[in-house]
Structures are given as structure tokens and as C-alpha cells.
Amino acid sequence: MKATSLFWKLSGTLLLVLLAAMVLHSVLIVLFFDPLVERWSEQRAKSTIDGLVRELSTLSPDAPHDSLAALLRAAGTDPGGLRYVFVPDSGGAVFGGPLPRGFRRGLARHLEHGAAAPGIAGPEVEHGPGPPVAARPDQRGMRILVRRPVRLAGDRSGELMAIGLKPAIPLWPGALSRRALLLFPLTLTVAAAGGLLIFRMIARRLAALEELAGRVAAGRLDSRVTDTGSDEIGRLGSRLNQMTERLETARHDQEAGEQARRQLLADISHELITPLTAIRMQAETMLDSSVALTTEERVGYLKGVLEESDRMNRLIQDLLDL
Length: 322
Known about the structure:
About 60% of the residues lie in helices and about 10% in strands. It has helices spanning about 5-55, 65-75, 105-115, 180-215, 230-285, 295-320; strands at about 80-90, 95, 145-150, 155-165, 170, 175.
């Protein structure tokens, strides 16, 4: 089996968890967060436009554009990223706040020629006179939310627009969308949960190795670990299994050797008892004064003692050789 590193397995798993968290993050933004923000922006834009229409209708006919701009700018200070533009029928436009680069020029071209302005996207919305703004995607996600005709005091009239801008928080190296920042804790939670699952898996495998070491220390050499993968922990488990198997074999060999040693000692003891008994009997016979022995019998007894002594000497020599 090809050896693999636990580092790559952990790294790949963490990357997959982060990728899954990013996908979940994007799905939540597209399916849930964006519709909520869009609905909230449209409702706020309609409410603000209604108020601006009433306020603009009370302005004097000779009110300067600065007054209109101040009124629109005050309405566009909310945190929803909305900007308000008043377009008089006589031409020109009064902007109520800063717009992204090139957007004013695109809006002016749209108002002049009826073409869709770059940077404006979204469905057709409620509008006054003039062609509707066609849906057009843009990386900035800007679109005209509400368009209402306005008639000022006198003969002045025009159109009031609410433009939705995607707010962003500047972070290096680029800009991070506020909606992404709001859902960042969810992504972090998913990634943390995945990390906890990974480390729990590692801890469980290490606990199995610790349990094996405890059983071996208690003398249960028949224990084995089942986790024998190709990574570092799996290879360690395989080495522990091999070590435990060798220890078990060594213990069996030791027990067999001990049994053989005991059997050998028993056999040697039996072999030594026989000549000792013969020597003892012959010596007692020669020392017994009640037994009349001839010279030949006494010599025979002495030869027997010598033979049994030689036999004992051979047994002792064999024992020393072992």
C-alpha cells in the first residue's frame, strides 16, 4: 500500500470544508439574503420617494438646484446604499449623493437617448413617462428601484429616481460586500464545525492507539488495533500490531522454554537419583558389620560405586553442556 501523509489528508479535508462553506455562503446570499435586501431597499425607496415628492411639490418655482440637491442628499444618507436623482423635463439632472465613476455619464446617455445606462440593472420598476429601464447585469449591482413623476410649483416638472447601490466595505486587497461580511460568521461556524469533526476523528484514532498500549501494558498481548491505514496514524497502528505480535510470540517461546527447562530438570533429577540410590545402598552394605562380605564381594561393591560415580559425572557434564 502506498504511504500517504496525514498532512495532505487534513489539508484536503479542510479545503473541502472551506469550499463547502463558501458554496453554502453563496447559496444563502443568492437565495435568501439578496431577496431580503432587495425587498427592503425597494420598500424604503418607495417610502422615501413618496416623502420627497411631497417635499419637492412645496418648493418655490425659482428654487436653485442646490436646494434640490441638499434635499436629495439628506434623503440618501440612509445605510441602505440608496441614491436619489431628480431629472427635470427641461434637461439635466440633480444628484443627491456621490455615484460610482462613469455612472452619471451613463445615466445622462440613458436619459438623452433612452438607452440602458451602464451600471443599471434589475427588473422593470414603477416609472413615469419615458421608456422603462431594461434589465442589465453589472458587477456593481446598481439598478433603478423606483421612478416617479414629480410636478413642482409652477410649470416645473420632472422625474424622481431611486437608485440602489451595492454598499461595500473597503478591505485589502479589494472590496468586501457588506452582505458577505454579514454572513461571514456563518461561514466561519461551518468551517469550525468541519475542523472539529476532523480533529475528533484524529482524537478517536489516537485514543484507539492509547487503548491498545494500555492493554499491552496489562499483559494482553493478543490485542490488536483495527485502524491500519496508509497515513501516519495508520502506519503507527500497523507497527504497534507487529510489535505486539512479536511480543506475544516471544512470550509463547519463553513459556515453552520454561516448560522444557522444568521437564529437563525433572529428568535430570530422576537420572541422578538412580546412581545416588545405588551408591548409598552399596555403601550401607559395606558398612554393615552384620553382613559378612568376601574380598571379591567388597571389590564388586567398590566397582559399582565407581561406575555409578562415573555415571553421575557424565550426567553433570551433560547438564553443564546444556
